[in-house]
Design brief:
The protein is mainly beta. About 0% of the residues lie in helices and about 55% in strands.
Length: about 350
């Protein structure tokens, strides 16, 4: 398997497009794989999660050193919780048992809990399951979502029986030739299940929102051929979308695209959104959520725009992302500085960009 090293570059951009001299720090090869995800443990310490390597690592931005690495037989989910900082890992042990491992920020194992209930044990028959962990919130105890054998289910401590379950074996639609479940997320009484439907070499993401107690559902569909993800903001669902630069189908010139939208979880009504119309079919965009902000990369405009989750623009920066801009990941936005993690073919880098506030 090809590994990717990491190169740290702190690059400060000003509105006159004059660049400060880059300060470079090199990291040893093998820290990153092509599927690596990054999470903030603190301002300087970041968690790297690789489900290909079944490993997590913590590295420090200032020193450029990896503090520690842990590997598992099968890694399913990683979460960072605060007060104090802890890392929650859902993984299989060497005996193929599903466990929740709680790590300190220093990598010390604080506790290990096995999921031994019969329903969960029976549903985990391979390494292909989609499993996510959710911290306690409100009246909900900690929960676990398990998607296996076309059946998504939600379990709650003490894990004896699913509190929600649906069979997708017969799911079909005249709109799509094929439907694939991609993700499950929980917030309060709601489950948000992401699907991708495909037809004639095109695809569309759609989100089925389910009120678990009363089983009421509604669906939010994204624009065709975009890639979407969801997150929660109180009683709102935030859906961000991206469109690859260089997609052979290209964008539909003159058509408004939804780059980010906020929807009331109770009703499904759209309460805010960010849209854009493009003039160059070869161009695209990427949007992602960073904390309480939405980050939007716009190569056609040669800029990055930053919004709050209600859709109000708060800052922007002149910037020309490389063509593979979908390899960009925002790490932090604070005090007018945007920190980006950028994967490249032979390495990776960090860029810190100075933004200009929008009045």
């Amino acid at each position: 398997m090809k590994k990717i090293g990491i190169l740290m570059i702190f690059l400060f951009m000003v509105s006159t497009n004059v660049f400060a001299e880059p300060v470079q720090q090199s990291f040893s090869d093998g820290i990153l794989t092509s599927d690596s995800q990054l999470f903030a443990l603190s301002d300087q310490n970041k968690v790297i999660c690789s489900k290909i390597d079944n490993s997590i690592s913590v590295f420090n931005l200032s020193s450029g050193k990896v503090a520690w690495t842990k590997r598992y037989s099968k890694l399913y989910d990683v979460n960072v919780v605060s007060s104090p900082e802890k890392i929650i890992v859902i993984a299989k042990d060497k005996n193929n048992k599903l466990q929740k491992i709680v790590l300190s920020k220093a990598g010390t194992t604080l506790s290990t809990t096995a999921f031994n209930s019969t329903p969960i044990t029976k549903s985990i028959t391979s390494n292909e399951e989609l499993i996510n962990w959710y911290a306690p919130e409100g009246s909900n105890k900690e929960r676990l979502s398990v998607y296996s054998n076309n059946v998504p289910a939600v379990y709650q401590a003490p894990w004896n029986n699913p509190v929600f379950k649906m069979n997708l074996g017969g799911m079909s639609s005249s709109k799509y030739e094929d439907i694939t479940l991609k993700d499950i997320k929980l917030s309060g009484p709601y489950a948000v299940v992401k699907f991708t439907g495909s037809s004639l070499m095109q695809s569309q993401d759609f989100f089925r929102v389910i009120n678990i107690p009363n089983k009421k559902t509604y669906t939010i569909a994204s624009d065709w051929n975009t890639r979407s993800d969801s997150s929660f903001a109180g009683n709102e669902l935030v859906i961000n979308s991206s469109f690859n630069v260089g997609n052979p189908l290209g964008v539909n010139v003159g058509q408004p695209y939804s780059l980010s939208g906020m929807y009331n979880l109770s009703t499904g009504k759209k309460t805010a959104g960010i849209s854009e119309t493009f003039t160059d079919r070869e161009m695209g965009w990427k949007s992602e959520r960073i904390g309480n902000h939405i980050l939007i990369y716009l190569p056609e405009k040669k800029k990055i725009e930053i919004y709050d989750v209600s859709g109000q623009k708060v800052a922007a920066a002149s910037y020309t992302p490389i063509n593979l801009f979908n390899t960009y990941q925002g790490l932090d936005y604070s005090k007018g500085e945007l920190t980006l993690f950028i994967r490249e073919e032979n390495g990776a880098e960090i860029e810190v960009i100075h933004t200009t506030a929008v009045n």
